[in-house]
## 1
Amino acid sequence: MKNRIQFNDAGYLVEVVTDGGAHLERLARHDWFLRCERADGTALAIWFTGRITMTKEQESMGNKEDE
């Protein structure tokens, strides 16, 4: 998967895809789908209703296993 964040013309979040295996997608006004892939190829899928109130990009905190 290629990392991407998509907003609609009104500035609302529509989709997020990460190379780490997460995919969040807006299905309808308040309906969402979240899929998280695991390293072994299995995945967890969640359909939910709600509002995204804020988004924020964060810098890497490094690999905590190195501490």
Note: DSSP finds no helices and five strands in the chain.
## 2
Amino acid sequence: MWVLAVESTSLKSVFWAGMLSCAACSGAQSGTKEPLALCSERLTGVAPALEPASSGELPTSELVVRGEVAEAQLLQLIADQIPATLAHEKDRPIGMPGRVTYTVTRGALDSNVRDGTFHVTTLANAQIEVCKPLGPFCVTYGRCQPVLATTVSLPLLLGSDFGYQPLSTSVRAERGCQIAGFDVTSRLTSIARDNLGAIQQRIERSMPPLRPWATRVWQLSQNPLFLDARHCLRVTPKRFVQTPAKETSTGYQVGAGVDLNVELTTECERRAEAPPLEPLATEPKLSEAPALRVAQLVATESATRQLTESARGSFGDGEKIDRVTLHPATLDHQNTILLETELHGVSCGKVWLKAKLTPTPAGALTLSDVAFLDSDPPTSLGDLPTTLAKRGKVTAEFPFNDVAKRLNQLLESAAAFADERLTVTAAVGPPKLTAPVVTKDGIFVVAELPAVVELSLRETPR
């Protein structure tokens, strides 16, 4: 055992320097890894040859209006157009049989839909007397009560020009009439057919023209619908659609709709001209789940800023994301996004990746399916795609929940001015983000808002 006493200042310095050197040697021997230096690896980051993205197409919205009316209500509306007495004449000469006096009154009504045509059949009850002139008198020698069935057929589908298709009428004898060997059924049927022409004209005059209404709605689409002082909805109609009427257990259901594009924007000037009214389309059925699909553009610059702010920071072993620039481009004949990612950590420079944007329940778009464009990326950046997918987010400026709230306010106001004979049910449901649309100008965030408009005829007006 020995002790060395060190008293001089110079000797103490030598002692502690030796001790530190030994500690360093000991650490190196234990295998501790020294941190890599900043920018120890330089990335070439050569930009790929980019084909710009196309303008893209906004998703189509379907606004569907369904109306239902009970058969009894509809028949009453039709009965109001048909007089109770269909025909009446006294002492009309009919040749050899003599003279006829008859009264034809409207009976029960029945209806059905066949081959897209609405048929209304009325049983017409006739009271007939036939007499033979004898001097100043006309001696009645026969009476009968025939029954005629008169049918008015109205095609429910409009023409492509929004015009009504021609009505048709028919008469048949349900119960004939013979008096003293003379059959007066054919003569009575001919008289009833002549009177049906007046009824047909009366019904046609009561049917309002629909093309002016469709044109007006089409033109109103040029007016933006303001959501606040800066934001509005711009509607671009594509076509009106009709579908054949359906017979239900209680009556009839008809449906019509309009296909349109809806964009939420800050460019809210009124358009100078409305596009020409498209021909009315006919489809076997309308969408069972109609919805407004509202698209809101996040410009490339804004998307770049949001991605950079959400993804920036350290990852992996000394790596650091400094900036993420979004580039809309065409890849494999489809619009997609490329990410020019700038790194400033152990690796410095740029690297290029491709990705998709996927909606989340929280109302944001997150990066997904992130992958390097280079087939042989640096192994040190293996965590970069996962990191970008975990952090990268893009959101729209205007809340879609506020869109639904504003539209429901407008629908409530509009329903208050509806015809007093109608019950109107209209509502816009909560928004749900769907697949975004990549365009040359950026990303359209798309929200789907279920929309329901239903009409029914009141039992009695308000």
Note: The helical segments are 9-29, 71-79, 185-206, 211-220, 300-311, 384-391, 400-416.
## 3
Amino acid sequence: MNSFIAIILTSLFFILSGWYLTYLLPLEERLERVGLAFLLGSGLTTWLWFLGCRLGLPLNIPTLLVSAIILVFTGYVLKERFGFVRNKTTLAKLSKTEKYLAITVVTLLILAFLIGSYNPLTVWDSLALYDFRGHAIAMNHSLKDIVDLPYYVSYPLMISLVHSIVYMIAGVSAQGIHAIIFSAFIGILYGRMQHWTNKTYALITCLLVITQSEIFTHATFAYTNLPYLVYLVSGLLYGVLGGKNKSNSQYFLIYSGLFIGLSTWIRSSEIFWILGVMLISWQGVRTKRLFTAVCSIAIIFLIRYSWSSFVISVLLAIDQPDMPRISRFTVEAFSMIIVNALSIAKYAYWNIFLPYIGMWLLTIPMLGVVIVKRNVRVLMLVCAIAMTACMTIVGIMIFSTYFRTWNQIGDSARRMILFVSPLTLIASTYSLYLMGKRGNNEV
């Protein structure tokens, strides 16, 4: 079976696995429902598969099907018990201009899929870590080959498990599925923006995100930065959605927690999941849904802990000391930060500020929209962008006290905050839409 068929079958499997869970939200767009089903199916199925492995089950097709059945059964029970969906989702009718935009979006996504499917894996970490683990799991149906070295547990297993599924059904390369992950995100982005604005603005936002060169490039090879972006930004989008009086809007907070938690199932060393915790807490207080917010935050910690506890057990088994923690707030550490202040400033300028200078500057006029339109949603998005910058700078300061080569990995720092681009484009496009409307638009 060639890679194309294997990737399509894997994608359909994920969509079916997560389909019933999409009925817990009152969605308007069928494209969003499909994208949501794929991302929930891929994230939660692989996570349950991993939990089964920790209980002693093999990582093979039968146990994968059991994980999918558990997910389908849970979604079906919740759907039947709560019956949130009242209206069927439809494919919106498009104007002539919107059709051209849609054709361009689809063409670019197909192009990314073709490039990823037919290009060999060449990028180092994708070849030596993510894809290697996928091959090892597919051959041995266990984690025995990846628990001998700390390098192999330096990142969570979701992407490797997705790759392993493709290889278990005789696929040759799993790289193309990263374009499918990106396409699922575009489906969610279109649905959210169409709900907040209209079809034209939604399609323009999708096109702007896709045509960001670094994002499009990441959709064509097997790194984890793009999947991390997809889950983190999706979680933030669902987190800013719920209003005070919207039917079933409290459940968007739960899905926000699911996506933020699953982002740590892709990359666990980044601390941007804290953005999700802060946003969910804000919405919980604002909408007086504290219990829902607490449950959502608990989901984040549960998913995150399931991997971190596994890593600790592996490091202890091979007698490898764990990585130093942020708790090293000593006088020596602060002295090192002061000494390195100029180097930290230069590093941040060249690798954090300059590559995204357009995005950072776009946040300035958004503050005017917040003041004029009194729009809480824009305020939340701007705060998320600003907090990203602050957390990144603080992270660099702390990192500089641990490793002498901290200033030699600029590319890694730039990729780490890749999600700033779509987040800023979403916020700016939404702000532009609000400025074209009369009156205040408080959400």
Note: Residues 3-86+94-319 form one domain.
